[in-house]
């Protein structure tokens, strides 16, 4: 990832912060709902979370039965320890990795997840090709921060390690030029709980309504003006 050493330094103790855990817990519910919307009832026996953070998504996948066997790879030691502490019943493997080399054989997982990871990665295509080597299909989710106000996104996201900024078109192009076939790509607004966590109850409700209605009625203008998320289900070409 973006200078692997510096990223490891940034995230090594990242998941020991309780505030981060609260935010990620809410965000993970969003992401799992996005996965369910994208896969449309498809079943996957073995699921690998690539860049699993502190395990919030894994925990919800386990509770929902999305994947009979779960695996995880994570770049930070604090993330690994947090995942272990969750004692996730269906978690079969947990490994630390350097961001580019996943310690599993070719096509050993039915579905790989890279949720809010690619925006941190210096060599995006190397990362995605390695993920596709290990997984038959991939679900990839990124923030769509390349809006008219890109400067603000860079200032706000830079301290968290975001080095790549996407529109729906540049995200789609990244996937296709990484040797992936895009089966389904969707744009999502933040859900109400996430908006209220960040902005408070009243302001969060207003932001939620504005963002969702803008996306509903004028999707092209919306993604040029406000930050959303994109999720894509992909397979190898």
Automatic annotation (TrEMBL):
One of its GO terms (molecular function) is methyltransferase activity. The keyword Methyltransferase applies. Keywords: Methyltransferase, Transferase. It comes from the Bacteria. GO terms for biological process: methylation. InterPro entries: SAM-dependent_MTases_sf. CDD domains: AdoMet_MTases. This is Class I SAM-dependent methyltransferase. It comes from Mesorhizobium helmanticense.
């Amino acid at each position: 990832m973006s200078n692997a050493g510096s990223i490891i330094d940034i995230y090594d103790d990242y998941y020991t912060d309780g505030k981060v855990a609260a935010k990620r817990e809410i965000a993970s519910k969003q992401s799992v709902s996005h996965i369910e919307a994208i896969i449309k009832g498809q079943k996957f026996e073995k699921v690998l979370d690539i860049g699993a953070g502190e395990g919030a998504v894994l925990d919800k996948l386990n509770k929902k039965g999305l994947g009979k066997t779960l695996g995880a790879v994570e770049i930070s030691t604090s993330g690994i320890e947090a995942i272990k502490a969750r004692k996730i019943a269906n978690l079969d493997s947990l490994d630390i990795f350097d961001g580019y080399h996943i310690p599993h054989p070719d096509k050993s997982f039915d579905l790989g997840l890279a949720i809010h990871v690619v925006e941190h990665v210096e060599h995006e295509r190397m990362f995605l090709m390695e993920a596709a080597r290990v997984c038959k299909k991939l679900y990839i989710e990124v923030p769509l921060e390349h809006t008219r106000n890109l400067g603000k996104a860079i200032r706000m996201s830079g301290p968290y390690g975001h080095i790549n900024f996407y529109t729906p078109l540049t995200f789609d192009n990244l996937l296709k030029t990484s040797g992936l076939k895009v089966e389904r790509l969707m744009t999502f607004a933040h859900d109400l709980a996430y908006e209220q966590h960040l902005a408070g109850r009243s302001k969060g409700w207003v932001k939620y309504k504005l963002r969702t209605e803008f996306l509903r009625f004028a999707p092209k203008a919306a993604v040029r003006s406000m930050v959303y998320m994109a999720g894509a289900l992909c397979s190898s070409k």
